[in-house]
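forwarding from the other thread:

> can someone predict this with pyridoxal-5'-phosphate?

sure thing
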Amino acid sequence: MPLPSDQDASGRDLGAEEIDLLTQAIESGTLTSTKGQFVNQLEQEFAELVGSPLAVACASGSAAVHIAVAALDLEPGDEIITTSITDMGALAPLLFQGIIPVFADVDADTLNLTAETVADRITSRTRAIIVTHLFGCPVEMGPVMTLAAAHDLPVIEDAAQAFLAESQGSMAGTIGAIGCFSFQQGKHMTSGEGGIVVTANEGLARRMRLFVNKAWGYGDPQPDHYFLALNYRLTELQGAVALAQLRKLSGAVKRRRALADRLREQLDGLPGLTLPTAPPGSLHSYWRFPVWVDPDLVSGGVDTLASSLRELGIPAAPRYIQKPAFETQVFAEQNTFGSSHWPFTLADPTAVDYSPSRFPNTYAGLDRVLVLPFNEGFTEQDVDFIASAISQGVEAT
Ligand SMILES: *Cc1c(COP(=O)(O)O)cnc(C)c1O
């Protein structure tokens, strides 16, 4: 039996609840969120669940990052420190806003940014920090927030992979100034595409809501298009599905944690294998289950182990992404607007220095990480099967 996959019905809990709300949305005849109720309801319930005062839904996780960055209202050429081990949707919006993404190195054992790696990249042009809670493992937020406060920098949390992860009693996405989430097919909850941002800051919330709505001042006495912005709205159809999914989210994350504990127990102590570890006082939400493979103890390292798992039907992904984002053509060739290379033309040379020697842990971490699929629909037998396949692969060497 193939493992449940988040790419189809085998590993997605989409059914009667979604159909019911979707039917109501269709029968209402109102499919735009500017007039309907479902996206509005989704925003309220999402904010409540994660413990944030305000939420604004949008068309994708990329849109979420875009409206978050746009809300900061920065100048072209300003720098935002971020990670190169992330989705392009977390980086492209910066370039569209004329911002220079400055990549910091990561912690090799989590592939997350740390206060130290971020501090190393702060310059007089730094205007914000974006941290990504990769695979559902929270960044160690305490030191990051202290550093950010010392430099008066807002922190944006990319929690697209970290629904209901926790750090020091707060949900991922609610610790910095803005938190971003994605409802894309493979995330903890889905409406096919979609996204949402949360914030406690009313000014930022207003700018983000405007940015989703072509900066048209809905409800204002004298509305206008106040600034350059797009239509990034979620439809009522997506809102209805996302709302039903949201109501299942806590249960799904709880099951993921129980399954992860079971997997962890069985893998614990295997030579050459490091298991995912959330920082003290934080809770992982296991979007994926990454393991780090020591090539000195497991011969052939991640590649050999990945192919032995794949032969058994376990779609394990060595290296997660094949290369750091700064090696993609977007950054390496500065392919942006025509042949202009803008906004890279505004960058300080150090900001775009992608020499490998500046990213030792990025390369070391990617060389060793093996990303195992994970799903709340796994049975205990599925977990045991994965564990025994890994034990066999490790011990065969
Ligand atoms: C999925 C993802 C995004 C982008 O979300 P989309 O909905 O695909 O645009 C951004 N950041 C991270 C970390 C992601 O995993």
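The first strand starts at residue 54 and ends at 58. thats all i got for now
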